[in-house]
Amino acid sequence: MSIESFFHRQGLWGKELARLEKMKNSVGDLIFLVVDDSVAMRRIISRTVRDMGAETVHEAGSANAALAILESERVDFIVSDWNMPGMNGIDFLVHIRQSPQHKHLPFLMVSAEAKMDNLIDAIKSGVSNYLTKPFTPDILQRKIRAILHQRF
C-alpha cells in the first residue's frame, strides 16, 4: 500500500498535504545563516537552501563573523562547518546554546570528519543534526527537513 493510499483510506490525505505544504512554505519564511570558511561550500549550501524556497540566506566565513550577523540580523536556522580557523564549529555551537537569545535556533553541523567522538561532542553540545561531507544537495535538504519536522 502506498503512503498516498494509506492517507486516503484514513481520510487524512488533505491534512497530510496541508502539513507538507506548511513545512515547504516554512522554509521560505526562515532566514538561514551559513557559516563556513570555504566560499565554495558556503555557496553550495546557500544555493541548496534557496532551492528549498528560502528567500534570505546570510553567509559568514567564520564563527566570529556569524556572531556579528546574529547581533544585527534575524536568523532562524544555522548551518555551520565544524573545521574553521579561530572559533571552530563546536565552540560556535556551544556559544549559541549558551545564548539566551539564540539557544533555541536549529543548528545543523557539517563536517568532513566522520569520527564518532565528534558526533558525540556535537550531540552533547546540543546540535540539531549532523551532516558529513561530501554530501549531495538532496541529503542536505533531507537533514534540514528532518530538523524542521521535529519542530512541527
Task: Tell me what you see in this structure.
- By secondary structure, this protein is α/β, with parallel strands linked by helices.
- It has one domain (28-151): Rossmann fold, CATH 3.40.50.2300.
- The chain is 54% helix and 16% strand.
- It is built from seven helices and five strands, in the order H-H-E-H-E-H-E-H-E-H-E-H.
- The protein has helices at 3-9, 13-29, 39-51, 63-72, 89-98, 116-125, 137-151, and strands spanning 31-35, 56-60, 77-81, 107-111, 129-132.
- A five-stranded parallel β-sheet has the order 2-1-3-4-5, sandwiched between helices.
- Helix 5 (89-98) links the parallel strand 3 and strand 4 (107-111).
- Helix 3 (39-51) crosses helix 7 (137-151).
- The two termini are 26 Å apart.
- 24% of the residues are buried.
- The mean pLDDT is 88.
Order of helices and strands: HHEHEHEHEHEH
The CATH level-2 architecture is identified as 3-Layer(aba) Sandwich
Shape: globular
CATH H-level homologous superfamily name = Response regulator
Helix content: 40-55%
Q: Can you summarize the main beta sheet?
A: 5 strands, parallel
Strand content: 15-25%
Ranges where pLDDT stays below 50 over 5 or more residues in a row are none
How many structural units, i.e. domains? 1
CATH class: Alpha Beta
Q: Which class do the helix and strand fractions yield?
A: alpha/beta
In round numbers, the mean pLDDT is: 88
How far apart are the first and last residues' alpha carbons, in Å?
26 Å
Number of helices: 7
Radius of gyration: 16 Å
Sheet with the most strands: spatial strand order: 2-1-3-4-5
